[in-house]
Amino acid sequence: MNGCEVEPLEDLADDYDLIILGYTIWFLSPSIPVTGFMQSEQAKRLFKDKPVVTMIACRDMWVMAQEKMKRLLSDVGATLIDNVVLTDQGGSLYAFVTTPRWLLTGKKDPFWGFPAAGVSDKDIKESSRFGERLLDGLIKGEEKSKQPLLKHMGAVTVNGKLVATEKIATRSFMIWGKLIQKAGAPGSFARKIVITIYAVFLATLVLTIVPLNILVRRLIYPFRKEAIEKSVKFYEEPSGR
Ligand SMILES: Cc1cc2nc3c(=O)[nH]c(=O)nc-3n(C[C@H](O)[C@H](O)[C@H](O)COP(=O)(O)O)c2cc1C
To answer: How far, in Å, CA of 119 to CA of 35, rounded?
Structure first.
């Protein structure tokens, strides 16, 4: 959650009825530039007392990041009224391959039975329903009540089986993040060594523990169903499914 410095946005109005904040996820946190922006003086001015709709596009692990975003929003005095999440097509296991391929080669097309990388065109097109509902709400001044406008429109679907994995991974990222920072300044030799060790550790984790964890979670799901469904409901707030 150490954001970078960002240049202030230009050509903004002084005041807004509603703010739609689009962001993406890096390592189970809001991406560094968005975190930096939310910690800026400009965000403090813009967001104070405003209703906010967050709009996430990511692979499929966004729940812990949104919890951090909730804190950033409350730090600037804003009220989160809705959350819309678009995740990559094809499910988690496919995205483990299609996202790194996209990141490393720039290729998004389907290949060898894998779907295209990223959010599907269909999901993007169908999102216009959220814009239409928000416009309708704004015309009627409904945003002033700071209550959700996108309830039960399929704005979010939490995958309950991934929440525990996200929690474990968040803890791991925090520990490694601190270790990497302590190792030295960005670009220093010591930091490069710790990052190399971390990269090997992460790749091993992704290839072994993560699939194993997903399998174990599937197996124990029937026994933990009630608790998982309760947490799913919580993380799907405020828009609901
Ligand atoms: C450094 C990095 C870390 C990422 N971490 C996550 C993550 O924790 N959860 C997730 O669902 N997607 C993650 N993604 C995927 C992004 O959220 C996003 O789907 C992808 O980068 C495409 O969006 P872009 O074109 O805005 O980069 C990560 C991407 C990058 C580059």
So the answer is: 22
- Could you tell me if 115 and 168 lie in one domain? no
217 lines ligand 1 (CB under 6 A): no
Q: Which pTM was predicted?
A: 0.90
Domain-ending residue, one of 131, 159, 187? 159
Is the separation of the CB atoms in 49 and 15 below 8 Å? Answer: no
Which amino acid residue places its CA nearest to atom 6 of ligand 1? 26
Ligand 1 centre to CA of 140 (Å) is: 36
Identify whether residues 146 and 28 lie together within a single domain. yes
Q: Is the CB of 99 under 6 A from ligand 1?
A: yes
Q: Which domain holds residue 180?
A: 160-231
pLDDT tens digits for range 184-224: 999 999 999 999 999 999 888 878 887 888 788 888 888 88
What is the three-class DSSP state of 87? strand
Select from 127, 159, 191 the last residue of a domain: 159
**Is 169 close to ligand 1, i.e. is its CB under 6 Å away?**
no
Q: How far apart are CA 127 and CA 212, in angstroms?
A: 34
Give dist(CA 59, CA 179) in Å, integer. 26
